[in-house]
Amino acid sequence: MTRSEIALLLGAAAARDQRTIGDADVLAWHEDLGDLDFSDARAALGRHFRESTDRLMPAHIRRLVRIIRDERRASSVVTALPPGKTQDDPDRAERIARNKARLSAVMAQIAAKRAVPSAPAEEPTASDEIRMRAIARAQAERTRRAS
To answer: What is the top-level taxon of the source organism (predicted)?
Structure first.
């Protein structure tokens, strides 16, 4: 709200509770209520004086504006979602399949680079046995990290 809207709001309150309004009042209330919408604040002011005999304070306006907004949200109904960007896209399924294939190829390359070599096919030597145990440990460690 602008300061002039705050002055209008305070004028409406003064008409009901005989308060006096000065520049300091407008500045103080603007500090407290400047972020609110004028029409919501005006509705909150009317509701306050219909429901209460208390002197109106900024906290009353803020609380009632929150209630008014909640009621507005609860009563608004979304009948349908707006059309999406891909709704009229005949090539979408083909493009998705093509991108999945590209992604699979890239993932296969990454997996091949990170794969642990398999054991040799011939009769293992002592160094091959050490190598096999190292490979088994590496595979177990990789499985444990993936879990």
So the answer is: Bacteria
